[in-house]
Amino acid sequence: MKIGMNLFLWTDSPDCEKHKPIVELIREIGFDGVEFPVESMSVDSVKKFAGQCDGLGLGRTAVAVFQPSKYDPASPDKGKREAAARVMDEWAAKAADLGCDLLSGPFFQGLGRLTGSPPTPDEWRWSLDTLREGCGKAVKRGVRVALEPLNRFEMYFVNTLADAKRFVKELGMPGVGLLGDTMHSNIEELDVAKAYFEALPELMHVHISESTRGTPGSGHGVPPALFGKLKEGGYDGYLTIEAFSGGVTPSMIPALCLWRNPEDSAEEIARKGYKFIKSHI
Predict the structure, then answer these.
(1) Is 148 a catalytic residue?
(2) Catalytic residue among 148, 189, 202, 210
(3) pTM score > 0.85 for this model?
(4) I need a surface site. Which of 150, 182, 227, 258 has the fewest CB within 10 A?
């Protein structure tokens, strides 16, 4: 297993001129890879970050979310569904140019959009059809796609790894699997470690995210038994820290309800989180 660090802790819009030292810090700490939020990245920054990571020997993954005012695979608005498929291709192109072989995110629906009801058969079908097109475009670019279930307060569509696995199996596409995030699993799964084991082999990517979105290992969101189950199941992908500090990710604050900052600084979260994961693998 490899250990990654998501740049969301510092920014939702990575700019190489501004954030190059952060990538250097991530490598200095010992991480194997860095995860880039690609939605707002410029072509120039994509190119420069790719060169920087090559020079540092850092692997790369990509992450994005659907802003529901513009893109939504489960929307009754056909235009938003079509836009979702198109933008997935744009994100996959950036991911490929960055040197990523994986694009992940909660792509089942627009982030934070709630209807007050469970998903309908029509919404399930719309999302399947949209993601079949969008994921197909990504896979053609050589980029795998990992779909992420979220907790019930951020997504009404798919909340558990079991439901996400059912969706992926129905989708039936090589190169498309699951992203599991421990913060969401801590809310929705009865047994987090067991749920991840049963999500294999569709599980492509794991976000290590604390119950507070702060330092991994400081709360109850990342059960130590998880690491043993992943090892037992032969998981060999990334364990990527996804933590947040509310003031630097303005696009994420409303949907994720990030109203307070963690006690540790961003650097402390990265350093302590790396040591926590390393100690268990």
Answers:
(1) yes
(2) 148
(3) yes
(4) 258
